[in-house]
Every structure is written in C-alpha cells, then in structure tokens.
TrEMBL record:
It comes from Undibacterium curvum. Keywords: Aminotransferase, Pyridoxal phosphate, Transferase. PANTHER family: GLUTAMATE-PYRUVATE AMINOTRANSFERASE ALAA (PTHR43488). This is alanine transaminase. GO terms for molecular function: transaminase activity.
Amino acid sequence: MRPIQKSQKLADVCYDIRGPVLEKAKQMEDEGHKIIKLNIGNLAVFNFDPPDEIVQDMIRNMHGAAGYTDSKGMFAPRKAIMHYTQQKHIHGVTIEDVYIGNGASELIVMGMNALLNSGDEVLVPAPDYPLWTAAVSLSGGKPVHYVCDESADWMPDIDDIKKKITPNTKAIVVINPNNPTGALYPVEVLQQIVDVAREHQLIVFADEIYDKTLYDGEVHTSIASLADDVLFLTLNGLSKNYRSCGYRAGWMVVSGEKRHAKDYIEGLNMLASMRLCANAPGQFAIQTALGGYQSIDDLVGPGGRLLKQRDLAHKLLTEIPGVSCVKPKAALYMFPKLDPEIYPIKDDQEFIHELLTEQRVLLVQGTGFNWIKPDHFRVVFLPNTDDLTEAFGRISLFLESYRKRHGTY
C-alpha cells in the first residue's frame, strides 16, 4: 500500500519543547530513570497551584458548563477582559473585540489563519516561542526572524527589523515579557516597534501571557496602549500568571486601527464560529481570576518562591565555566549562552540528548526557539531549590566532562 504521509504544510513546522529529546526522556522514565525536567513551563507539576477561588468558582458553575457558549465566549469573562484592557490603558476595546480561546495558543493559530495567504511574511523574534513560527508556516505564510540582541539584554534589534521588511510583510510578533529570554521591553523600545508598524502598515501581534510575572519591581507596558492608528492583536490568558495551564483559558483582544480591518475581523469571527466555542469550564475562571487577589505578586515579590528560584538558578548557571546568562526580568525562563570557544557544539539537539543520557536532566536546545546558532539552551526555573541545585550540579558535571573531551578546560 502507498505510505500515508503528513501534509506538506507541516514541512517547516516544529515544536521541540515537546520534540525528539522529550520522547527519549519518556523512554528513560519507562525504564525506571528519574528525569529532572527543566524543559517546559507546566507549573502544576512543580506544585504551583491555581488560586483556590478560581477552582471553587469553576466547581460551582460546572452545572452551567455543558452547553456551547457564544463563539467568542461568555459575556461575563469577556467583560472582565475588557475591563482589564482598560487597566492596561488600551483604548477603545468593546466586548465584541474580545475572543476567548482554548488557551492563547489556539488564538495565535486562528489569528494567523485568518490573515495569511501563501507567500505573506510575518516578522517573528529570534529567539521566539516556537508556536509563533509554526503558526505562520502552517497558515501558508513565511516566518522571517528578526534578531533580539543578547548584548542589549535581549532587546529587539530595530535596525534588523527594518532591514527585513518587504512588500510581502503583513505583521510583526512581539513577545513581551519574552519567552525564552525573560526580557522585558521598556516603553522606548515598544514605541520604536509601533513606529515601524505604523510606517509599513503592519499588524502587531502582542504575546503578553507573562505580563504579571515580573521581578524586582518591574512594570509591564502593553504595546497596544501606545497607539490608536495601528492594528493590535493582544494575547493573554490564565496559564502562567494564575498557574492554570490545563484550564486552557486564553483570550485575544483586537484594538487600535480597526476601521480598515473589517474583512480580517470577519475572518476571525468565521474561524471563531467554526470551532463553535472555547471550553466553558475554563471561561468561568476568568472573571474571578482577573478580579480577585493577585497571588502571583507573592510569588515574584521579596521572599517569593519564583524570585528565590530565579536568583538561585542564575547564580548556579553563571558559576559554571563558559556559561553566561542575562538575568531575566520576567517570565519563568533563562536562555544561557555557552562560550563556543569552550563548548564547540555543532548540533545542539544532540548536545541536549547527550546531557539527558548522561545526567538525566531534560532541557531544550536554543535552535528549538529559532535561535541562529547552536550555543544556547532554555532553562525553566520552576523546580524547588533542592531540585534546582541537584539539576545544575548535574549540568555542571556534564559540562566539565564535555570540556575535557574536547580539550577546552
């Protein structure tokens, strides 16, 4: 019989956060090995629980969650999201501008599906959260990666953005706070991106899923608050700030220059209707989450667990010879660099595979985030301090062995 092959649309699609190395880790676990997983921001498995009031509200409302909802979402959570955009100083948002999805991930794909024709280009940061690159490719578009500058605390390189704009460029993706680097963009940088978008009539897709996971008193600015004459699609959700990844409750807000986007918005409405609705139980959590006590502040503030783990992870990483890392101001990740003179890595996926095999620590290679060289990896600092200390001890041993094997110690 003829082999059944996957669609050619998947040829340039990858998601190495759950890729081949994870499959190896699962195999090792089946064989009885204990793996320390620093590969994914799944908070629940590290005992970060959602706020009790969210859980209780979902339980109380479960009897009303059996039917389809409005294709854009229930009225009450959409109104709560609308009010949240007002707190973020995003102007002119109505309830009809709010779409609730099965996590922000579904809405990222929906936003690209509704926009792109074959050959259309979207500017995506490098490094990026790889779903953005995959969503562009899967929608028939071409992802074009602009560089974020590690020497400038991972800020977007505005000159590189300008160089990569062509007549086919339709949009730019801004991930702020950034995954995987933990960077937080100041108003000045965001304004420059808005200016470029205005000049070239680009849509701005703003991924702000970590907008409350901020350290050292930092403040997040929504890029959509900086202009009314550019079209913005801002994405957020409960997964990270409210430790509710499995509830799949995300949202997308359309704002700014909507008058000339009626056809595109009609496409968004069509796709929202085709998937019928987002899951109802997760929608019941949104109003309570946004209006309730913001327990994330306790985790990231002085003495908070996430702050302590960030500081410990950064200290242990940067004590290893040949490893440097910009200290993250936000989110749950670090994106350290391995000095190529000391670690002459040619294939970073194989490098991560060797680390897993020898020391039973699971990371994700930098090229999995569309970084341009095999000299970075992403670390999740969600495990408790004892597990982090154990993990980085193992990483240090592996890197010491690597230096000796390559004569660079």
